[in-house]
Amino acid sequence: MNQFWYEPILASILANLGQSPPYLAAFDSASAMLRGTAAYLRGEDLPGLGIASPAIEPLLGLVNILPRPLQEFIYSTGSANEGIPVEYLKDVRSEVVSQWVVNEYPQRDYPAVAIGSSCGALVHLYAALGIPWLPQTYLIPVNHPGFEPNHIQPFLEWGIKHAPKFLEANPDLQLHHMHDPNQDRLTSKGMAYFRVKRLCLGIAYERFLENCLPLGGTIFLVECNKTWPTTQIDERHFFQMGAVGGLSPDEYLHGSDRVTEFLKRYNDPRTKWDAPAPNGESPESEWGFEAALRDDVERFALQRGYKVRRIVYNEPADPSPFVAELYRDWYRQRQINANRLLVESFALHEPYWTLRTGSVPFWMTFNVQPDLEELQQYLDNTDPYNEIYMMLFSHGTDSAGLASIEQWRSVLQRAKQRGEFVGVDEKAYPRDFASMMRYYTDLKEKLSERYSLPSSLTLEQLDQFIEARGDHFPLQWLDCNLS
């Protein structure tokens, strides 16, 4: 008998209680985007990112006005409370997570299912098509003894010590231990980021496909080619210094004026971090796609008579202009005025209210300088919008590469009629902790126009748009030959 026979039962119980497995990060890109996609397919919205009641918004508003040291203490402590004790790593089971993922979705037939990299823009594609998305990557936050975020070597050595039991218990997972002392300065004070990637579909994903994807249906493989210099510890264990955001990989590894200024800002006398030397490139821990999963999906699809189409891109937000223009085209077909842009940031997204308010979604990975430039480039190359609304994710620190509130305000001024922040306290940014709840209530209040939820966009309509305009965007749509 399978020694983990109880895992699907445990996952089903947790799902019925509305709870994810206790070792899975609730506040993470993959978890938030999964909840957003699943909520839309259930015909529901996503208050508090699906993990908290809007009733706590006033409490978070009080945090915004506390002295900065107390704010940071609350943020760090709250993040650490999401971490699991390191001794629990051996109890993590990938199939429990996968069973919870599929239990989030209505069990019915779908024309397609997406599997792979996290991408907030593609959440809106899944909503438009009415299809589920199964993530390859998810985050396990693990408590550490209290290492100082700017001291890298203790994190590395601690991970080397504790990873083997986790990997032994989960031969179908690849571990990417990511440490970002720039953007995750507060959260990493109490927890380490163990991001894991599925190397194969596994039982739960396979059963979901068999039950919900009819013969001849399409599996979309979502493949972000973003890589990062890493230190490989073992066959399935990598350490990644830094992450996608305001700094380049070279700055994390070798320093720069911006890194020196950041360290000085937080009273650290060093000029750079003591990063371990990388010995290769790997899929970026949060966004990158591990190709081993593609091989297994193609095997399964060939056996079951499914089609496989690859959505391939290089940067996490590359699909954003494509999805925005697809929505504009779709709205025009539905006789809806396609002149309202809703800019989303990291985990702050709302597929349900995007469609109910007739908004065009544009998702940013974070709110750093590269995201600002990508948004400006999009606006330079599309018809002007009458209205622009913007969410901003606050991570609580003045990280290197962060775009200022004044820069974001200048984007809003490009609207022909109205440009406003959604859920943002401009004076508190980037320590605007209430924005994590206020984005939802503010969105419904400011965008008062309402439309009925549409019938799903068909795969044929998607293909027509790709045929007409697909070569204008940095995405590849590749059909797999499974013969």
Explain this structure to me?
The protein is of the alpha/beta class. The protein has two domains: about 300 residues, no CATH class; about 130 residues, no CATH class. Helix content is about 40%, strand content about 15%. It contains 17 helices and 15 strands. A six-stranded mixed sheet has the order 3-5-4-8-7-9. A five-stranded mixed sheet has the order 2-1-6-10-15, sandwiched between helices. Helix 1 packs across helix 5 and helix 5 packs parallel to helix 8. The two termini are about 35 Å apart.
Q: What is the residue-averaged pLDDT?
A: 91
What is the count of β-strands? 15
Tell me the number of structural domains.
2
What fraction strand? 15-25%
Q: State the end-to-end CA separation.
A: 35 Å
Low-confidence stretches: 1-17
**Shape estimate:** globular
Number of helices: 17
Q: Strand pairing plus helix content: what structural class? A: alpha/beta
Describe the strand arrangement of the main beta sheet, using strand numbers.
3-5-4-8-7-9
Describe the largest sheet. Answer: 6 strands, mixed
| Rg, Cα atoms, Å | 22 Å
Helix content: 25-40%
Topology, element by element:
Blueprint lengths: L6 H10 L12 H13 L15 H8 L3 H15 L11 H10 L8 E5 L3 H10 L3 E3 L1 E7 L8 H18 L3 E7 L11 E8 L3 H11 L5 E7 L2 E8 L2 E5 L7 H6 L2 H9 L14 E4 L8 H13 L2 E7 L5 H15 L6 E6 L5 H6 L3 E5 L4 H12 L6 E4 L14 H8 L5 E4 L13 H12 L12 H11 L6 E4 L4
Parallel strand pairs: 1-2, 1-6, 4-8, 6-10, 11-12, 11-13, 13-14
Antiparallel strand pairs: 3-5, 4-5, 7-8, 7-9, 10-15
Helix pairs in contact: 1-5, 2-6, 5-8, 6-12
